[in-house]
């Protein structure tokens, strides 16, 4: 593992996170994967067993702070204190008019979509700074760039994630650490099941993987702002 680059990917059992984790594994990374489905994580470890990368995993409910802290401790130990890429991908969506929402729904979506990335970034940014390199990718959304009726809770977290990203970049840049928020429209994942767009006309999870590789391969002195990925002909 010492010769392999490393990554930590949340929400790695389906959709964007699974595509990113598999792409990194197939490129020779040691990837620490987390999600709530322990059986799916075990299958991914087995899939990677004969490949160029190494999969490590821990099932985790990111809405629970104590589980996030356990994840951080386990991942840092398993990766020998080195994380080259952190992908804060895990997220949930709640839609509806604001008067129909509840404080409990607010607390839950904030805990997963915003508090967990904050806790992970808070723990891993210092490790990256000490090594003089690293990339933090936060999966935001077009709903973090523009808000609509019925998206208040989701947009709160995705706008907040972009704010977190900007601060991470400012704090990390003097030490060679980059942070970027990816803001896609409809991506063909279970999260948007039932959307009024055929999956074949949506952004594909692999498009996010390719974007992360693009960010990784920029020269040390180059970084982008937030990247908005829109579906051809719409959101």
Q: How are the secondary structure elements laid out?
A:
Elements: E1 6-10, H1 15-26, E2 30-35, H2 38-48, E3 54-59, H3 65-78, E4 85-88, H4 103-131, E5 134-139, H5 152-172, E6 177-184, H6 205-217, E7 227-229
Parallel strand pairs: 1-2, 1-4, 2-3, 4-5, 5-6, 6-7
Helix pairs in contact: 1-6, 3-4, 4-5
Gist?
By secondary structure, the protein is α/β, with parallel strands linked by helices. The chain has six helices and seven strands, in the order E-H-E-H-E-H-E-H-E-H-E-H-E.
Question: Mind explaining what this structure looks like?
Answer:
This protein is α/β, with parallel strands linked by helices and 235 residues long. The protein has a single domain (6-229), classed as 3-Layer(aba) Sandwich (Rossmann fold), CATH 3.40.50.720. The chain has 6 helices and 7 strands, in the order βαβαβαβαβαβαβ. It has helices spanning 15-26, 38-48, 65-78, 103-131, 152-172, 205-217; strands at residues 6-10, 30-35, 54-59, 85-88, 134-139, 177-184, 227-229. A 7-stranded parallel β-sheet has the order 3-2-1-4-5-6-7, with helices on both faces. α1 packs across α6 (205-217). The radius of gyration is 17 Å and the shape is globular. The model has no long low-confidence stretch (mean pLDDT 96).
């Amino acid at each position: 593992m010492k010769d392999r680059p490393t990554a930590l990917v949340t929400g790695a059992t389906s959709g964007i996170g699974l595509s990113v984790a598999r792409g990194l594994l197939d490129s020779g990374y040691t990837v620490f994967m987390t999600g709530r489905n322990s059986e799916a994580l075990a299958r991914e470890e087995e899939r990677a067993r004969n490949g160029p990368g190494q999969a490590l995993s821990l099932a985790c409910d990111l809405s629970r702070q104590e589980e996030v802290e356990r994840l951080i401790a386990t991942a840092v130990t398993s990766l020998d204190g080195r994380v080259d890429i952190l992908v804060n991908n895990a997220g949930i969506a709640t839609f509806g008019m604001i008067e129909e929402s509840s404080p409990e729904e607010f607390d839950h979506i904030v805990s997963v979509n915003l508090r967990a990335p904050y806790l992970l970034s808070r723990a891993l940014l210092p490790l990256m700074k000490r090594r003089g390199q690293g990339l933090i990718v936060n999966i935001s959304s077009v709903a973090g760039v523009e808000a609509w009726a019925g998206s208040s809770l989701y947009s709160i977290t995705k706008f907040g994630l972009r704010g977190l990203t900007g601060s991470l970049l400012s704090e990390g840049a003097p030490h060679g650490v980059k942070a970027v928020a990816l803001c896609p429209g409809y991506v063909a994942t279970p999260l948007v099941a039932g959307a009024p767009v055929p999956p074949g006309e949506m952004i594909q999870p692999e498009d996010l993987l390719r974007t992360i590789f693009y960010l990784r391969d920029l020269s040390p002195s180059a970084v982008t702002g937030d990247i908005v990925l829109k579906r051809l002909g719409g959101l």
